[in-house]
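=== Per-residue structure ===
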Amino acid sequence: MIHEFIMHVICPFLGTMGYAVLFHVPKRFYLSCGFTGMTGWLVYNTIVGRTFSAAFASFLGTMAVVFLSRVLSVRKKCPLTIFLVSGILPLVPGAGIYYTVYYLVTNQLAEASRRGMESVKVAFAIVLGIVFVLAVPGTVFQSLAVGQRRSRKG
C-alpha cells in the first residue's frame, strides 16, 4: 500500500520533470513542473478509483494542474505554458489511444470503438478543465500570489 502510494508520487514527479527537460524549460523551474504534474496525477488517481469515471477524474486533475500552473506562473513571473504543458502530460490518455489503434488493427471494432470513445471523453475533459480555469480572471491568481508573499514576509 505504502509502496504503491510512493510510486504514484515519484513516477509522475520524475516523468513531468523529464518532459520539462525535453521541452527545454529553464532549470530553475524543474521542481515546480514536477510538483505540478504530481499534483494533477494525485488528484486524478484518488478520484478515478471511486464512483466517478476516468473522464471526470481527468477533468478535476486538469483543473488542479491549471490552477497550480497559474499560481506558479504569477509567483515565479514566467509564462503559464512552462508548467501547464509538462504538468498535463501524466493525464493524457496515451494508453487509451494506443489500444484504440491496436484493436482497430486486430479487427476488434467493438473494443476499438469503446476505447476510442473513452479516450475522446478524457481528451474533452482535459480541454474543459483548461478552459474553466483559464476563464477565471488573472487578478484572482495575482491576489493569491501576493497574499502568499505577504504572509511569508510577516
Remarks:
- The longest helix spans residues 109-134.
- The chain has seven helices and no strands.
- Residues 2-139 form one domain.
